Every structure is written in structure tokens, then in C-alpha cells.
């Protein structure tokens, strides 16, 4: 996979690369989505992965110690875990200090700031290393205006968290550009920002300014230009729906694509809440999104079929396409199904 470079200059990052990806003690792929996303979309900037003994997830990159990674050219340890609450557990600290001692800076997209952890701040100062927190919104974000902006916008939305909104946005932006149409991927979460080098960490923005932050993320553009905006959370998530709604109102999408993981029955980390139907997500997104864009429409469905073989994935895609009368595709598998989804987005 390749990555598109954004034209955003405000808040652009310059991260020390290449990366050694830290997976900590992740036992579920959904919580290692940052490392997996970097490996898939910026693999040329990753030298390997570093894990604790309890980790059962892998990016497929070579496992190595921080010293080995530094010898192979790595310049930072990037925390590739997106856990509940965005915290840095005490059990990780020994590994993070080891990375500092090996000559690596630390890069994190978690809510808890590296510099707020005394042992890390002390060791970084002693060793002359950088502690870089990506999840830091720029100052001066305005409240949302609701003003209609020029250009076209596509937003990925989901039935849950961690099921493909970022991958879908990246693939659609790449596919649109391949047709000679101007398009930019607009990152709204820490992993997307790390991949693209710029963006807006929506879930770190004070709630009153979420819509305004989304407006800054996708400013006025040429009438034939597309911003493909990475979605966050889910309108049906009991913890994160506020971020999803602010992003929806501020991005004012002309088109949205619903992302879904077949087989997931409950909200990740909240088994008491069932996954909503795709129909419910379509209806809710139109009902709420029409406040700032009355012409909003659903262009299709994106499926994460990583757990299915090719035949089962094809059958699932065909069944949902028939059920909803919309194009359905797995953006990673690509092929004619993805082309039909892009056709629908651009129609």
C-alpha cells in the first residue's frame, strides 16, 4: 500500500524515522491498530516490532530489541497500542526506558502524555531524547460555524471502533486519485496522523470545538477536489459517539461510506451493547448529518473481511450488496468491487 501526502500545513509533524513499533502486551488486534496501520501503510518507515512477553499480536515485522532496531537505523520507538482510556501502564515503563537508553526517541498517540510520566521525563532529559505526543490539538480552534464550504467531502463512518474506517479512507483517497481526480486523505486520529504526517486528533479536542476542528481539517477547496476524511468511533458507541457526531457535523460530508466487521456482535470492550445494523447506521448518519449538509448520501459499504477466506468474503460482499442495493467492497482486497464503490462515491 502507498500513502497520500496531505496538503495540511498547520500542525504538520516531523517525526524521527524510521520507527520501531511497540505493541506492549496487546492481546487483541483492535487495540494494536496503530502499529498495524503503520505497518500496512508506512511499512517502508518501520524497521521492526518490540513486544512484551504477554503480547499475542504481531504486525508481521521482525521482532527485535530497541538496541537491535537502533543498529538497523531506527530513530524512535512508536507506541502502536490504542487502549481504552489512552493510558501508559506502569508495566510498560521498563521497556520504554530501555528504548530511550538504546538511543531512540519516544512517539505516542495516547491521551496520557509521555512528559507527564516522571521516570520517562527524567530519563529523556538525562539522555537527551525527545518525548513526542501526537495527540495534541493546535491552539485556537474555533467553534463550528456550519458554513457550507467549497469542494467535495467523503466521510467514513462505522458500526463500531477499530474496524476499518482509516483503511477505507486511505484506499478510497488513493483510488480516487488514481482516476485523475484531486483528493486528499484527512487524518482525524493518531494513527492516521502518524501515517500522513498531519491532521487533527479529534478525540483530544474539547467537545465544544469538535465541529470547528473538523472544519479546520477540511477547509475550502476547489469545486472538483475531494477530501476523504477518516472517521472516528461510532454514532452508536456509548463512550465515543460525541466525537463521531462532532466530526460528522463539522466535515459536512456529501458522501459517506459505512464500515463494518462481519461477525462482530457487540461493541468492542462493551459486550453489553450490541453492534447496530448497517441500516441503522445509514439512517442515523443521514438524520444527523443533514443538519449541516441536507444533500448527504450513503455511497456504499466497506467490509473488513480479514478473518474470512476469499470465497467467504466474496459471498458476504455479494449478500450485503443485494440486501442494501449499494456497492460493497473490502478496500484491502480491492478489485472490481472497490471500483464500483468509488464509482458510487464520485457519482
From TrEMBL:
It comes from the Bacteria. Residues 144-336 form the D-glutamate N-acetyltransferase-like C-terminal domain. InterPro entries: DgcN-like, DgcN-like_C, DgcN-like_N, P-loop_NTPase. SUPFAM superfamilies: P-loop containing nucleoside triphosphate hydrolases. Residues 60-137 form the D-glutamate N-acetyltransferase-like N-terminal domain. PANTHER family: DUF1611 DOMAIN-CONTAINING PROTEIN, GLL3100 PROTEIN. This is DUF1611 domain-containing protein.
Amino acid at each position: 500500500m502507498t500513502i497520500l501526502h496531505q496538503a495540511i500545513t498547520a500542525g504538520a509533524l516531523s517525526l524521527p524515522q524510521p520507527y520501531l513499533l511497540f505493541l506492549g502486551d496487546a492481546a487483541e488486534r483492535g487495540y494494536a491498530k496503530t502499529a498495524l496501520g503503520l505497518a500496512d501503510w508506512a511499512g517502508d518507515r518501520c524497521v521492526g516490532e518490540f513486544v512484551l512477553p504477554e503480547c499475542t499480536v504481531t504486525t508481521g515485522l521482525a521482532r527485535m530489541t530497541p538496541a537491535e532496531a537502533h543498529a538497523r537505523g531506527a530513530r524512535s520507538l512508536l507506541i502502536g497500542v490504542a487502549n481504552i482510556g489512552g493510558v501508559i501502564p506502569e508495566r510498560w515503563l521498563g521497556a520504554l526506558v530501555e528504548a530511550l537508553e538504546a538511543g531512540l526517541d519516544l512517539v505516542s498517540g495516547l491521551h496520557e502524555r509521555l512528559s507527564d510520566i516522571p521516570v520517562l521525563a527524567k530519563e529523556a532529559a538525562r539522555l537527551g531524547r525527545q518525548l513526542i505526543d501526537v495527540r495534541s490539538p493546535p491552539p485556537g480552534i474555533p467553534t463550528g460555524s456550519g458554513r457550507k464550504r467549497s469542494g467535495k467531502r467523503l466521510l467514513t463512518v462505522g458500526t463500531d471502533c477499530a474496524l476499518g474506517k482509516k483503511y477505507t479512507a486511505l484506499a478510497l483517497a488513493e483510488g480516487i486519485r488514481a482516476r485523475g481526480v484531486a483528493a486528499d486523505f484527512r487524518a482525524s486520529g493518531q494513527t492516521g496522523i502518524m501515517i500522513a504526517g498531519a491532521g487533527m486528533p479529534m478525540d483530544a479536542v474539547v467537545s465544544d470545538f469538535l465541529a470547528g476542528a473538523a472544519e479546520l481539517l477540511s477547509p475550502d477547496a476547489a469545486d472538483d477536489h475531494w477530501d476523504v476524511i477518516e472517521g472516528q468511533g461510532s454514532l452508536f458507541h456509548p463512550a465515543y459517539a460525541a466525537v463521531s457526531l462532532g466530526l460528522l457535523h463539522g466535515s459536512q460530508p456529501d458522501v459517506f461510506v459505512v464500515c463494518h466487521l462481519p461477525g462482530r456482535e457487540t461493541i468492542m470492550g462493551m459486550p453489553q451493547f450490541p453492534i447496530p445494523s448497517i441500516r441503522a447506521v445509514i439512517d442515523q448518519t443521514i438524520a444527523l448529518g443533514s443538519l449541516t449538509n441536507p444533500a448527504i448520501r450513503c455511497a456504499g459499504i466497506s467490509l473488513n473481511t480479514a478473518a474470512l477466506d476469499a470465497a467467504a468474503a466474496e459471498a458476504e460482499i455479494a449478500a450485503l450488496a443485494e440486501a442494501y442495493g449499494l456497492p460493497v467492497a473490502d478496500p484491502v482486497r480491492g478489485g472490481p468491487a472497490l471500483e464500483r464503490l468509488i464509482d458510487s462515491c464520485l457519482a
